Amino acid sequence: MPPVPAASSVTTEGLGSLPPLGVGFPYIGELPPELYRPGLVDFVEVTPETLCRTRRDGEHRSLIVVPDRFDRARTVVDVLPIVVHGIELSIGSAIGCNEHYLDMLDQFQRLWPFCWHSEHLSYQTMPGDDGVSVDIGIPLPLPGTDEAVRLVGDRAAAIGRRYGVPFLLENPAHFLRTLPYEPDISDEIGLMAAITERGSCRQLLDLHNLYCNAINHRFDPFAAVDRIDLDRVGEIHVAGGCWQSGYLNDTHDGRVPSAVWELLDYTLPRCTHVGGVVFELLNYYASKMAPEEIVEELAKARRIWDRSHLPTREAGT
Predict the structure, then answer these.
(1) Confidence (pTM)
(2) 255, 2, 232: which is closest to 121 by C-alpha?
(3) Domain spans of the chain, in order of start
(4) What is the CA radius of gyration of the chain?
């Protein structure tokens, strides 16, 4: 395999432009391949870590694409375009984001080019006693500081240059009642706006995350949408969740609540540069939903996409 170009040598042309693909669904190997057909879905969201294994050599850790998993995914997805949604970058970690993930993504892009890619605006590692990063076990939200804006914004800009396709950051669901915010940032909406501005990247607006936070922290989600810079939104997620220990959790384990569909109907027509809407479902819970139920959720997303009068995907665009 030829060497991966350095970040500074990759073109940034077209970073801000996303093709309007339409309705997407995650690749889940346990589901019937018939769900991944043109007309039902327009694109597939792939989490590359699910097609990898971890290899350790002493203290060195790497993510290796497993050929059998990769080849099956390509066969199932077939002609549909893909986007990437990662889970292990940990872009907000003070010790540094996960370079093993980026090394793997370099290889993945060469093998299976993606239209855009996204990650969560969070951190999930911290420095250990020996200076090696330790996995916290759960992604945590960032403090609203100028330091966090510089740290993540600069990393996002470098990642954009590295891959030459749009990079998006997803707003997190979290349970922390109070987080520190500097006056010029104000809250998590201000933090996302500042980071995407500095990083020349876009937002992946997860409406179920927003809905969970609205329920758990008692605010109006529609008023929150009114404050988001929707021109920066490149992708939207909808999903289901469940109640645990008195909190609504973003578990991606079932059908989308009616309130989230209402949020999508309210938000999507105002997102002038959005590339698609994804119904999220985790592979752990795929067996809980019958294929017909998944088809029904995708059809709801399709109706709202069509109502928004956004251009539909055409071959070659």
Answers:
(1) 0.89
(2) 232
(3) 7-307
(4) 19
Kindly provide the b/e burial profile for residues 139-175, where b requires at least 16 CB atoms within 10 angstroms of the residue's own CB: bbbbebbeebbebbbebbbbbbbbbbbbbbbbbbbbb
Query: What is the C-alpha to C-alpha distance for residues 32 and 79, in angstroms, rounded to an integer?
Result: 16
Measured CA to CA, the distance from residue 71 to residue 46 in angstroms comes to: 13
Residue with tokens 């800009």: 157
Q: How many angstroms separate the CA atoms of 219 and 228, rounded?
A: 14
The predicted structure's pLDDT at residue 250:
82
pLDDT tens per residue across span 77-125:
999 999 999 999 999 998 889 999 999 999 999 999 999 999 999 987 7
Our CA angle for 312, 316, 317, nearest 5°, is 50
Q: Is 223 exposed, middle or buried (0-12, 13-18, 19+ CB in 10 A)?
A: exposed
Helix (H) or strand (E) holding 112: none
The token duo for 164 is 């030459």
Report the alpha-carbon distance of residue 193 to residue 196 in Å, rounded: 5
What is the topology classification, in CATH, of domain 7-307? TIM Barrel (3.20.20)
Q: How far is residue 134's CA from residue 230's CA, in Å, rounded to a whole number?
A: 35
